[in-house]
Amino acid sequence: MGRRPRRKQATEEGAPLLLGHGRLPRALASVALVVFAGLWLLPFVWAIATSFQSEQDVATPGLNPIKGALTLEPYRTVLDRGNIPIWAFNSILIAALVTLITIVISTLAAYGLSRGTFKGRKLLLGVTVASIMVPPQLLIVPLFQEMLAFNLVDTYWAVILPQVVAPMMVFILKRFFDGIPRELEEAARIDGASDLRVFWSIVLPLSRPIVAAVSVFVFIGAWNNFLWPFIVTNDPNLMTLPVGLATVEDAYGVVYAQSMASALIAAAPLIVVFLFFQRRIVKSVATTGLGGT
Amino acid sequence: MSTTSSRPDATDSPVESKAGQHPAPPTARPRTKQTGWLFVVPFAVAFALFMIWPIVQGLWMSFTDESLTLSSTEFVGFDNFAEAFGDPDVWSSLGNTLFFTVITVVPLVLVALGMALLVHTGLAGQWVWRLSFFAPFLLPVSVVTIIWQWLYQPDLGMANQALEKLGLEPVGWLSDEQVAMWSIAALTVWWTVGFNFLLYLAALQSLPDQLYEAAALDGAGAWRRLFSITLPQLKRTTGLVAMLQILASLKVFDQIYILTKGGPNNSTRPILEYIYDVGFTGYRLGYASAISYLFFALIIVISIAQLRIFPRQEG
Question: Residue B93 CA to chain centroid, in angstroms?
Fold first, then answer.
């Protein structure tokens, strides 16, 4: 990342709108900010310190999180067990497939709903919007039965398929497509481009920011989903990180250094992604219209 | 009026198209009319299979004695619903859910607002603050619970060791019936406040500078600007954040299930865990569905109430 983005942020968003240039309010705000950030980072600091020590040192009382010599032992032990790499692979594969399939079917549907005039368009749109209200947990019992009937329990597909239905994302994308001027598409149509071609070469390139935003939310959602993967997977080799950590890893008993090591290994990927894309993610909250006033 | 089954060929002339209600030139109509439907098919199929069908099936099940163990299923009318109304576990788990919602929504809105205001004051190191507040939101639930289980650990955990340093009695963070739900609420605020923080930050960044410049010319001080400009301008965002947060808190399950399994003595068991217990541990799918639908009805009532309350406040 380096220094460039940091400087940019200071100028773009650092307008002293709230406090003006008064010395005292700024000093108070700085103190409050540091205290808040410290509180929020404290659990991480404590967990990281714990993860680099031997189990014996961790078991010594004391408020100083570092109690003895630092060691990589907990990480080695956890990785040697081999579960976490498998779960990480499953999580990445499942989250990636959920995101890919969701984006493909949602952008197509949103475009169809935005431009199409087919019969039932209004009905489908209405039902899609209404279904945003339905808590997904409400559906677990019948969905589980459906997976039993399809013989999909304990497969990747059972985890993936129900997650690709994202009415909220279809609605967000449709609203964005509605705002794209139709004239752009007409020109291409007159040149003989097919609908799919227009969608692919004109609409999608214009929609990159919103598609990126939706992808980020779908990916985070799928990566962190717990209840559904927990219900449809029993085979430890098919579990995602959240499920594996909560069910299998738990069975290894009270080994705090190792627990913290596994937690941090599982936490690392998304935090690294956020470090690289944080400006994009903050913007995406604004572009999806969620943050707009 | 439109035929979705027939597909006109590419030579379809623009003249044949009907003038739609949309302002688009008629040249585009004929083809969109047909393929628009095809665009929607993959989503519509998935939507029907994994959303509509389970909704309908769940509703049907709630009127039966469907079970994972019974081979035959009978229609039982409103028996499940009658049983749910008389079931003390439904009421107590519903009470736990509502209590959790109350004690999380208020801090999750206020803390997020405070964080966003502080970060937006424009102090150096923006990315550090943003990362500090948003990072927990990126963690999977099991990672959050592993870390906090360690903080709440009775003897070695940071929480009790800090109390000891201050000369106070240790607390059974997850084992004391009076305390456990508050401990889970604290964890939840730490974990999820980052998303609300981002919503507020995005809203703050979109406020027009002119308002503040005008206020500065009028000599309005920092507090005056906060209360007369910033907070009123954020009303819509606050309404949105509160609404999303209430709906999210009502659906609490994951962290409670992993940390306490609803204990001690069912004092933290939320309604969704009771539904899970009835359906997957007790195998009574029909009864679990009935409770699900009662809960859904409650969510709809709360949502409608919110829609009526918030627009009025916006003025």
Answer: 18
